Amino acid sequence: MARIVMKFGGTSVANLERIHNVARHVKREVDAGHEVAVVVSAMSGKTNELVGWVQEMPKVAGAKSPFYDAREYDAVVASGEQVTSGLLAIALQSLGVNARSWQGWQIAIKTDNAHGAARIQEIDGSDIVRRMGEGQVAVVAGFQGIGPDKRLATLGRGGSDTSAVAIAAAVKADRCDIYTDVDGVYTTDPRIVPKARRLKKIAFEEMLEMASLGAKVLQVRSVELAMVHKVRTFVRSSFEDPDAPGMGDFLNPPGTLICDEEEIVEQEVVTGIAYAKDEAQISLRRLSDRPGVSAAIFGPLAESHINVDMIVQNISEDGSKTDMTFTVPSGDTEKALDVLSRSKDAIGYDVVQSETGLVKVSVIGIGMRSHAGVAATAFKALAEKGINIKAITTSEIKISILIDGPYAELAVRTLHSCYGLDKT
Ligand code: ADP
Ligand code: ASP
Ligand code: MG
């Protein structure tokens, strides 16, 4: 007997038939004698609808500002998961499985005060563990917890993955299974590149990079938690027949295992390609080249909660003036330009230029640490397709390249084949 946390994402619980199918997956594990806690997302599309309503409300009410109270955003958007947790508990009970739903505050999943993007700080798993011991399945609403202000807090988009891994750590689960609409982690988004290959295993650090560079199959924070707490995490499909052979294989379930790099025998140089759309580039021209200028630019941007990503500064020609270019999410462009214009005197620049609708494609692989020439291969392949590179950043295990939006899919496919990742 083992203890398993099973998480089901939005498409897996998109309608009542799918929730019934999810209940069959859960029943399979219960019948095998395991203790089970389930984490669910909102039905697919529901969170987007709720977020849309929150954004519309101030306009409809004639408010001057589009801003709204983040605590009320959380009160609204957390409701999607409440619905699915109740429905799945009913579906399980209908199959004769003892189950009950849990909201974040009932457990309690305690978070910090960052409404809309809260971080889990503490989970008291004792109630769930006791009831699992009595044979009851805990069906937990993902994406939500309770803040120090005693109000609902949500964990940022895709946050149910994080709920699942955090609960798995809290109840010391033997395994955390993330069920989704693809049957594992692929070398790149299989919806963009049909030739993408499913990985049997991927190292934590690579998954962390893939997730932070745009592969939304797992929320970044869930990977961090799995790595820190050594949670054995699998990504697998909810769409397979719950009773198909091998589905209940405890040691070797179908899907992709996220694990320590030592566990991976055949390490490729490049493991995957990720992409992030809707990036914007901002350039400050003829900036004075003196100590403190970067702080004068990025300090105010950080205070305004603008996430700056790639930063490139030119070498000054004459020691007095230089150029600085950086990227922000497209949606933050106006806000960033506003901040920069207000700090113009403190920074000291001539003009600011911006361009939206760009895409960042990234090549990821632990093998890059010990192999030269990986970047050159990417540059050559992109050049052959006539794709212009606007900015480049690298780290030990990744290369990120900024390009024009319309080239995104071509670039992802090109990089995928140039490193021999295509399925044969
Ligand atoms: P869920 O609703 O189950 O949380 P998500 O939509 O958040 O599912 O994540 C699953 C999606 O992630 C897939 O449908 C796929 O399009 C996308 N994806 C992006 N990159 C990858 C990748 N490298 N491997 C697998 N899926 C990926
Ligand atoms: N329902 C939330 C979202 O759409 C959380 C999740 O699905 O993980 O972001
Ligand atoms: Mg998700």
Automatic annotation (TrEMBL):
InterPro entries (alphabetical): AceGlu_kinase-like_sf, ACT-like_dom_sf, ACT_Aspartokinase, ACT_dom, AKii-LysC-BS, Asp/Glu/Uridylate_kinase, Asp_kin_monofn, Asp_kinase
Leader sequence residues: none
GO molecular function, one term: aspartate kinase activity
Pathway: Amino-acid biosynthesis; L-threonine biosynthesis; L-threonine from L-aspartate: step 1/5; Amino-acid biosynthesis; L-lysine biosynthesis via DAP pathway; (S)-tetrahydrodipicolinate from L-aspartate: step 1/4; Amino-acid biosynthesis; L-methionine biosynthesis via de novo pathway; L-homoserine from L-aspartate: step 1/3
Keyword Hydrolase: no
Lineage: superkingdom: Bacteria
Pfam families xrefs: AA_kinase, ACT, ACT_9
Catalysed reaction, written as an equation: L-aspartate + ATP = 4-phospho-L-aspartate + ADP
Keyword terms, alphabetized: Amino-acid biosynthesis, ATP-binding, Kinase, Lysine biosynthesis, Nucleotide-binding, Transferase
EC assignment: 2.7.2.4
Domain ACT: 282-357, 363-424
PANTHER family according to UniProt: ASPARTATE KINASE, ASPARTOKINASE
Family affiliation: Belongs to the aspartokinase family.
This protein's name: Aspartokinase
